[in-house]
TrEMBL record:
The keyword Transport does not apply. PROSITE patterns: HTH_ARSR_2. PANTHER family: ARSENICAL RESISTANCE OPERON REPRESSOR, TRANSCRIPTIONAL REGULATOR, ARSR FAMILY. Keywords: DNA-binding, Transcription, Transcription regulation. This is Winged helix-turn-helix transcriptional regulator. Pfam families: HTH_5 (PF01022). NCBIfam families: HTH_metalloreg.
Amino acid sequence: MKLLADKTRLTILALLKEKEMCVCDIVDILHTTQPNISQHLKKLKNGGLVLETRRSQWIYYSLNMDDKPYLQGILKELPSMKDELNKLNPNCCK
């Protein structure tokens, strides 16, 4: 639960609730630095809340909530990030 006490990490989870993403997409949406987002993702990964998958030079992140039913209610309460995702540059991680 301590991982969820940070607004940036909650926003990252809300984004990943919609789809898997690479760091560059998250950086674009949150208007922050890549090292900042990478540190938050590292904490979420170490806490078992996200998974990473490497595809060539890019790493994609997705939610890892199947074995955490106690967090499902929190995820449902997070606002939709679909509008922000629609504004993304489609060539970011290509």
